[in-house]
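#struct-pred

JT: dropping the chains for the assembly here, can someone run the whole complex?
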Amino acid sequence: MTGLLTRASPQTLRLLALGLALLATVLFFATQIEGYLSPRMFTRISTSAAVVLPIAVGQAIVIMTRNIDLSAGSVMGVTAYMTGQLLGAMPELHPILAVLFCMALGAGFGALNGIIIAFGRVPSIIVTLGTLALYRSFLVEWSDAKTITTASLPQWLVDLPSANAFSVGGLDVRVTVLIALAACLVSGLALTFLRPARRFYAVGSNPDAAVMAGINARRVVLTAFIISGAFAGLSGFLFLAKFGNITVVAGLGFELKAIAAVVVGGVSIMGGSGSMIGVLMGALLVDTIDNSLTRWAVISEFWRDALLGGLIMAAVTLDTLASRQLTRLRKGSSQ
Amino acid sequence: MTQPVLELQGLSKSFAATQALKDMSLTILPGEVHAIVGENGAGKSTLIKIMTGVYQPDSGTIRVDGQPVTLRSTESAQLAGIAAIYQEPMVFPDLNVAENIFISNRAKGRIMRWSEIYREADALIAPLGVKLDVRRAAAGLTLAEQQTVEIARALSLKVKVLIMDEPTASLSAHEVARLLDIARALKAQGVAVIYISHRLDEIFRIADRVTVIRDGQHISTKPIVEVSEDGLVKDMVGRALESFAVKTAANPHGETLLSVHDLGCEGVFRGITFDLAKGEVLCLAGLVGARRTDVALSLFGIAPATEGTITLAGAQVRITTPQQAMDLGIAYVSEDRRKLGLAMPMSIFANISLASLGKLLKPFGLIDRKAEAAMAETYRKRLAIRSPDTSVEVGKLSGGNQQKVMLAKWLETKPRVLIFDEPTRGIDVGAKAEVHAIIRQLASEGVAILVISSDLPEVLALADRVLVMREGRQAGILPIEEATQERVIAMAAGQATAERPAA
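RK: done, full complex below.
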């Protein structure tokens, strides 16, 4: 066991632990909820996680650069609403263009965050706390408290959430799930194999060294926020597709869900490390718990948020303790 | 004549009130090791930052291979072929060694071909004589290993000029030898190495030419064979010694106030023994890293000693917190004004009263503002702090005046023992003389004074006795009559100087 602990990379161990936690969660709820291990539950959890996944991917990239994007949930709400409005006015708009509109709109909001943070040198937590409220108020003002309803949306969008991409062993994989997975996969590949994307890690790992090494750290941070905005936009689109009815509270609290998924997924809040597989597993774990709790009679629905908060704390605490212990183990074994 | 690879012409740079560089010119030839020496605050780091594009000069031109260039950022400096490695290496702990090397290498294209990167990283690291797994994360590498990574990074960029800024400050003798070998190898490849170090013996081992800078100005550039260590030291500290305060005959050796016997702190320093009399100035001299500040910190209770005894006015004391030290009448004027000494955004008077607020209390624990202002005003006049009144923000004062404010703060605690750590670092010559005069004045009033200084003329001008430290040990105590720059340097550098082949 010690051999495994010292040989495998911390990142691998983290994923392993996460996998075990996910398995344990599923098994636990299987004993508690009748008919839990069913294709229906799989569809429920996977489509719900699909909405969170893109926004979590964007958040992870921002966190890697030692920043945070608290406004992502508001961006998601605004893009969901405005895209719904656009499709209501132009129902014949090509679906691809609708997705692109969503992401571009989100990228615009992200760019505003990024410009203030990177060039105004204001801490990201302050800027995005401000825009969290500003973007939401903008939505309230813009929507005039009107709701987007399924009735105003084109048929393809209404059909999208129940559209099946393929089935494996009785489990249906929805198109929306595939879109989210694609976003995660593309980001993961880019972060591993694209040199410019590696700079997200570099800037978060040691910002001073990044500047000394000739990296334009400000541009890197700006890019991270633009990406975060774009992915929040994509989440907004999936949200619109899934629910059809969009009010001014759309996406409320999603930034916290995303941060939870990212942190539970092993992305260091201090920046510099993390993987997209981790984010995927984090999002799955968070959503599995979230969806299962609503079905679990023992616990009141109001405890869901508390559990989410506890999960974030537990993940970070465990991670800190474990990596400290691991460092000690390694030192011991190398001597 | 060979085309210089880098030419600096008439560079000037100032920050607010201080002129860091004045009309600096420098010519670097390909394939030479060019040493730059100067005292602390001579402008070396500003010069490096201009050459690497961190700072932009106020005036002057930079030419690379004869072409004028503007180094807008570290990125553009790298493109021009200039890179630097620092005393504190700049690596990315979360990235692996290979990626650390190639992270800013634009020539490598946009796609990371990991196997190729590992192979090339191995190829770059191997000739540097260090065994390093290029796939491991950089976290946990030793300083020497991190430096190797940085050198490999610079090599991968095909630099023409590599600046090494105090690269050996934290290295062991073996690691130093290896670094110097690397520098020689670079030179053989035609890379110009700019080598900045306080350690003269290294400079004589490695450099082809040496430039002395002082007070932001170019003093001399000579082939190494034409200079002697004494000549270099003279050029470095060269400012006429008469600008220092003339030593007043201090109360020569009154009663012993502070007696330190075999003081040590595990793993940091040990075997420090000295007596300090009222009215005496004892200077701690030594190279950077000789652990002089740690001795001061143990006397002030910040990093308490783990062995040995401290006797103050006849009674043995244990000092484990700064509060205890202050209660015993020990004050410490720290080297780093910004971090440890002053609250920069606060006014002069608030800073002066900070350590003695207890004396200024009115009923209900309110601060007597009038008394506070009067106290500050007294010090403003007595120490000649240059500002219209005492409500000015300390951060807006010059370094010398900040030093005086800090001194005022401690004087108000009426110390019996006053410890100065680098009291004149980074302040100009005029203010320096004033600070020296104040220190001698305090001594003549009977305060026992301990001064840590890396500035030898300062040591010789201030001290009654000089305690020389080397690598955490006491190398000896010299009475001022026997202390010369040469003797102090020889004791401080110890073996290193003796081993140096005659230049």
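JT: nice. The interface with chain A takes residues 52, 54, 73-75, 77-78, 84, 86, 90-95, 99, 103-104, 108-112, 114, 140, 153 of chain B (CB under 8 Å). Residues 342-413 of chain B form one domain.
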